[in-house]
Amino acid sequence: MSRVAEIVDAIRAGQSSPGAMAREVAARLALAETRALNAVLAWSSDALDREAARIDGQGRGALTGVPVAIKDNIVTTEQPTTCGSKILEGYVSPFDATAVVRLRGAGAMIAAKTNLDEFAMGSSTEHSAFGRVHHPLDPARVPGGSSGGSAAVVAAHVVPAALGSETGGSVRQPASFCGIVGVKPTYGRVSRYGLVAFGSSLDCISVFGETTDDAARILSVISGHDPLDATTVDRPPTEMPDGPASLDGMTIGLPQEYFPDDLDPGVRAATDRAVSVLRELGAKVKPVSLPHSRYAVPTYYVIAPAEAASNLARYDGARYGQRVVGEGGGLRDLYRATRGAGFGPEVRRRILIGTYVLSAGYYDAYYTKAQQVRVRIAQDFGQVFGQGVDYLFTPTTPTPAFAAGERTEDPVSMYLADIFTAAISLAGLPAMSLPIGRIDGLPIGGQLIAPAFDETGMLAVGMALEQAIDPTAEALS
Amino acid sequence: MRITREEVLHIAKLAELQIPDAELERVTDELCRICDYVDQLNEVPIPSQAEPFAPGPDRVGLREDVVRPTRLAHAPSAFAPEFVDGFFLVPKLDGMEEE
Amino acid sequence: MTWETVIGLEVHVQLATESKMFCGCAVTFGDPPNTHVCPVCLGLPGALPVPNALAVGLGVRAALALGATVHARSVFARKNYFYPDLPKGYQISQFDRPLSTGGAVRFTSAERGDVVISITRLHLEEDAGKSLHDRFPGKTAVDLNRAGAPLAEIVSGPDLRSPAEARAYLVTLKQILEFSGISDCSMEKGSLRVDANLSIRRPGETILGTKTEVKNMNSFANVERALTAERDRQAGLLEQGGSVTQTTLLFDATTGTVRPMRIKEESHDYRYFPEPDLPPLVLDQSLIEHQREQLGELPEAMQQRFVRQYRNITAEDAFELTLEKGLAQYFERVVEAGADDKKAANWVRTEAKSAYNESGTFGIAPDRLASLIGLVDEGVVSLQAAKRIFTELLQTAEEPRHVAERLQLLQVADTDQLAAWVAEVLAAFPDEVARYREGETKLMGFFVGQVMKTSKGQADPKGVQPVLAKQLRS
Fold first, then answer.
1. Residue B98 pLDDT
2. CB C281 to CB B52 under 8 A?
3. Is C99 exposed, middle or buried (0-12, 13-18, 19+ CB in 10 A)?
């Protein structure tokens, strides 16, 4: 049952109220267990009460009274926006992101700002300046990243839905690790106005939900063309699916590159089971190929850092954020000291790589090359979808949640966590992860990939799979 | 592709990032590893005239020339580190000329 | 030693829009600092640019006015560098796919006759804010009101051959852009800024010498002065056996010299790449055609038409009258209202232009000026009186004839009245009368002047002289 729908119905029926919801969320946020997750960077019961009062005065909306957590790289005027970084500690934005404006317009309640890898750069939420986030089922493990905080609060039932952001898989991957639904829309479907930019041609505000229905409801409110974002497409908000799809006559492709011989046996077992369920539901399943898949992560790690290096140039201590006066006392000293102290090691690495690949003498070798490989990656998907395949199904992540500290030594090993998600980001396509089983008690997700702008169809297939599969079943039993 | 320490220092300068001496070797090593990893892109044969791929609209939508400023919930003085007489203040660049 | 000077100019013009290039803030001049700012032009986290349709249109119009090839598809690019008045740490500009390439500016060079200066490219970009280095000790003060204002950058080829030509190029370019309503091109207001590149070489040499960049020139005259100083500096260097190093120099208007920027200019690596926040700029043929229509008549064509159409004006009149479109249009309306073209040209080039320069408007409707010119033609008022009436007309909506009557400036040709004034004057100056009658005929001028004085300018000078002559004879 969709928790979002439950809340909206209860309030409509007079069985609950925005005020009651506010108090309930506040209570959950205050719990020791919640605080132990370190998933939340900012919240206050006063702010929640104000939200409730505001909603009381509004008419009934699609999300009236629904508490939604917001990843702390999406700007809000009520709470600070830190992007998980010391350089923005205490910064309160003087404007709200379009997605936040739309959520509130529909009657939703902004519950909290959640922890993340600094500036969304990471796959474990271990790179936050404010401490790592703990996996709700095993505190020694990571919830995934970069949207680990938003994933954790949904998985821990603090809120039914949350906004995250994706650049290479930062919502789908934590959704897989935490056993919840994570939906990435087509690039250009949801306004990026107010999403602090990391990789501009890749960034997508994305949605976590306890169920597919929860996520779909949020997406249908925040999506749609925005005149403030020139990269949004001229299309209306996504429509809610009518219900779970009938898979009769549908063709689901399994890209062979995502099922390598050395795939983790637990992940293989879980996805095999999900594929059988898809067949039982009436779908035709067939192997396909996305030949350039292996180049997705290296391509991503040229393009995203390049755009990031440029996007993060504005953090210099001059006009907002924290300022560190340098030794020499001059302007360049200010820039270098502020940025040196304010950015963590992963962010600094990416800025350096990004600056390097754009620099004179290296631009063609790296940046131009990566953009051209990106064309090939996008064409791979285009070809497959153009040959009668309706959707693709793959594992979301190569493993379940790993232990904290396991991958922080070698940056490249961390990057490989994006191996099944990055290509989709490069191609700008919609995709979702939903829980399909457990491996030694840890959740694991399966990924659906759709053609551009077919969010509704994809969500309907997700709903069908969701209701036919037991996400708590051990994959290897 | 090997990146030298001098190159790292040069890039750090371009990016206005201070790398403490104690970290320089480690940072150089990490960057080399990342560059080695992305070097595999050279395996992919690409015709030189290929147009890059950008998702989103094919052409940029334009905005009517109307004065309609976005309202700020609070003024720059609220978030600026140093704001005097309506100006943002920063330390002077050494040897700065007024243009 | 003779040297050939080679100059190229990069001109930034602020496009005549109400709002900024990428946001809805107003483009203003002179307002209190940081009062026309928003998340986009402040470069706040999460802000995004959306281009101004009119700025694009004016950019296209400028390209057409210069005879350039407009590219239906052009791409915005980021130019990355750190500076206090560049809020995002990059400027949104255009790099390898500019709005237009090609084009030319034609004018007559004092040294070479008719010249054609090639335009390499025109592209759109946003302006930076303003940094003030001397307002607070040890600090730089930043005002971002101007950040995001829409600019067109126009780059000429290295085709200019003297500082005077550089100035003439700027005059012509301003004329073209102002004519087509693209920009008011005011160096005083900062809506036109110039950076120059200059090198010298031996006459006949085809390879270019090392060039330097000269900045901080705030008027066309100062451009000429600065480039003269730089050319002389380079010549002096080379003649002493030294060499020119590629540097940037700033012009100091008080001393008339150029000096290198004190900070060591590290060569910039701008790391240009296509702006990921903006899809390509694609122009429909209809937009380009619409801008072509908006161009109207260009200065060169109008000047030639004036020479053909207004038979009594001189070539110099035609040149001067078409320097500014407003002036040209005013002149034509005055002629349309019935004035003689030569007389209209004289009045418009002098009195009307001064009034316009002072107050920004012409102040006197064309038909009233035509009417005034007619009064002089008919001898109703003297030319002198007419100038007084003109000044008065700037303050009042009255008809010129009424003003003349009110100020008692109606020229009197009535011989009885003239005779009375003449008699009065001759009675007042008996010695001079005697001297005249003894042969000092040049005193006639003195008597005419005195009659004009006595009549408070109302006497018709043409009629005064015969009356004086008659009375002096008797």
1. 42
2. no
3. buried
In a domain, B98, yes or no: no
Give the length of chain A. Answer: 477
- The pLDDT assigned to A290 comes to 97
Strands (E), C224-378: 248-252, 257-260, 273-274, 281-282
Quick check: B95 contacting C, CB < 8 Å?
yes
| B99 — pLDDT class (breaks 50, 70, 90) | very low
Task: Say whether residue C48 is in contact with chain B using an 8 A CB cutoff.
Answer: no
- Give one DSSP letter per residue of C243-269, joined into a string: -----EEEEETTTTEEEE-SS--PPP-
| Chain B residues 37-66 with CB within 8 Å of chain C | 52, 54, 56-66
Interface membership of B81 toward C (CB under 8 Å): no
Does the pLDDT value for residue C101 go beyond 80? yes
Asked if C287 reaches chain B (Cβ–Cβ under 8 Å), the answer is no
Peptide bond into A146 cis (omega under 30): yes
Report the C-alpha gap between C418 and C423 in whole angstroms.
8
- Give me the number of domains chain B comprises: 1
Which of A239-248, A345-354, A395-404, C358-367 is predicted least confidently? C358-367
CB contact under 8 A, A356 and B17: no
CB-CB contact of A444 with A270 (8 Å)? yes
Residue B9 lies in a domain: yes
CB contact under 8 A, C48 and A75: no
Residue C130 in tokens:
């303003």
With 90 as the cut, is the pLDDT of residue C415 above it? Answer: no
Strands C69-70 and C73-74: unpaired
User: At a CB cut-off of 8 Å and minimum separation 6, what does C441 contact?
Assistant: none
Residue with tokens 């191609």: A427
- Relative to beta strand B83-84, strand C4-14 is unpaired
Measured CA to CA in angstroms, residue A350 lies from A120, A353, B15 at distances of 11, 5, 11
Give the residue among A249, A193, A217, A164 at the shortest CA–CA distance from A1: A217
pTM, to two decimals: 0.91
**How far is C9 from C165, CA to CA, in rounded Å?**
11
Point out the residue among B14, B68, B89 whose CB comes nearest to the CB of C141: B89
Is position B17 within any domain? yes
Distance CA A202, CA A171 (A): 13
What is the pLDDT at residue B48? 65
Closest partner CB to A93 (pick from C45, C89, C273): C45
* Domain-located, residue B77: no
A71 is catalytic: yes
C399 token code pair: 């008809």
The answer to whether A170 is a known catalytic residue is yes
Cβ–Cβ contact A331 with B under 8 A: yes
Task: Convert the pLDDT of each residue in A123-162 to its tens digit.
Answer: 999 999 999 999 999 999 999 999 999 999 999 999 999 9
The tens digit of pLDDT for each residue in A61-81 reads 999 999 999 999 999 999 999
Look at phi and psi of residue A317 and say left if phi exceeds 0, alpha if psi is from -120 to 50, else beta. Answer: left
Q: What is the pLDDT of residues B48-92, one digit of tens each?
A: 666 778 899 999 999 999 999 999 999 999 999 999 999 999 999
- B70 and C24 in contact by Cβ < 8 A? yes
- Residue A113 annotated as catalytic: no
Say if residues A127 and A118 touch (Cβ distance below 8 Å): yes
What's the rounded Cα separation, in Å, for the pair C326 and A440? Answer: 83
**Chain B residue closest to A424 (CA)?**
B55
Instruction: Name chain A contacts of B88, Cβ cutoff 8 Å.
Output: 318-319
Residue carrying structure tokens 């120059």? C196
Pick from A194, A319, A359: CB nearest C46: A194
- Contact A25/A48 with Cβ under 8 angstroms? yes
Parent domain of B15: 5-42
Domains, chain C, ranges and CATH? 4-286 (no CATH), 297-406 (no CATH), 415-473 (1.10.10.410)
- Is any Cβ of chain B less than 8 angstroms from the Cβ of C216? yes
